[in-house]
Amino acid sequence: MTEVSTRVDLALLGIRVDVPVQRRSGAGPSDDGHVLFGGAGAAIPLRPESPYTIRADRLLYEGTDLGVTVEPVRRPRFYDLRTADGVAYEQIARLHGKDVLATTVVQTCIRYGEDQRCRFCSVEASLASGSTIAVKRPDQLAEVAEAAVRLDGIRQLVMTTGTSAGKDRGARHLARCVRAVKQAVPTLPIQVQCEPPGDLATLSELRDAGADAIGIHVESLDDRVRARWMPGKSTVPLSDYRAAWAEAVRVFGRNQVSTYLLVGLGEDPDELVSGAAELITMGVYPFVVPFRPLAGTLAVDVDGAIPPTAAVLEDVTRRVAAELRRADMLGTDQKAGCAACGACSVLQTAGG
Ligand code: SF4
């Protein structure tokens, strides 16, 4: 089995261990444990039925040592701190992968009604469980970021947001948060993630605030898939995404803009790869990740959705990684963000 196949298998089947750094529900992929797979950060689903386990930092498949080092990420020291008003730092931002601080600055979303919500999303579930707070204030984020850099060697910050009702779709609060963090830790690279803002000038505001990279996440380029899986979000037409990506590349630079593309929503794999190639031509990094059925999402609780097959995930990932290499556009060249982290995707293992 190649390293890429093993990483694909792990992304789909998960591991049967308890690791110190985990994420339960939230925006984007979650219910995962953070490990170092051959030294690189990897967010792997935690599954008691998985054939994979870790023993003495080695990956075992049904008891057989695969010769791959997999080390759990240790619990960061900043998790033990609280703000003066008693909020645990862990409720404000969390460690992702090996050295990424990640936060959802507004944990609610105007699209969270059952008929509007993205069917794979559980952004408000972590709020309901008490593991986070609804709105992170700029000064709270600055305090946590400073401590995480000082105590745990954090190297980048990812700030996402639920979508707000305003025309900026939440980008203005992101800008305020970026400004505060940059004042506290000027050298910490920051990626912001939001929907295409109604006014594209907001992208310059984010850049002026100090954001180094941006993710504008479409999840699928197929309008039928979008309507079925993201009834609320798909009301923003793809043309708005294209305009926002183009402006973001102008403002942030080539390969400092990214978007998620989920594999396994029923899209045509060839169309996904050709759509990814078009994004790469625009200077946008297509962050290809497997769709993961998570308990507490409509995809699982109502639809009974299943993940993609390993063959499809590996094929799509390898082809998109090859396109990225051809364009000399690597995830590790992004200053911050999911493409730079890479833990939720197999792209970096495949050379993208
Ligand atoms: S890829 Fe993004 S969501 Fe996944 S662990 Fe890294 S920063 Fe977090």
Automatic annotation (TrEMBL):
Pfam families to which the protein is assigned, alphabetical: Radical_SAM
Radical SAM core domain location: 98-339
Listed Gene3D superfamilies: Aldolase class I
This protein's UniProt keywords: 4Fe-4S, Iron, Iron-sulfur, Metal-binding, S-adenosyl-L-methionine
SUPFAM superfamilies: Radical SAM enzymes
Protein name: MSMEG_0568 family radical SAM protein
Cross-referenced PANTHER family: FO SYNTHASE (COFH), LIPOYL SYNTHASE 2
UniProt cross-references to InterPro entries, sorted A to Z: Aldolase_TIM, Elp3/MiaA/NifB-like_rSAM, F420, rSAM, rSAM_MSMEG0568, rSAM_sf
The keyword Methyltransferase belongs to this UniProt entry's keyword annotation: no
Cofactors demanded by this protein: [4Fe-4S] cluster
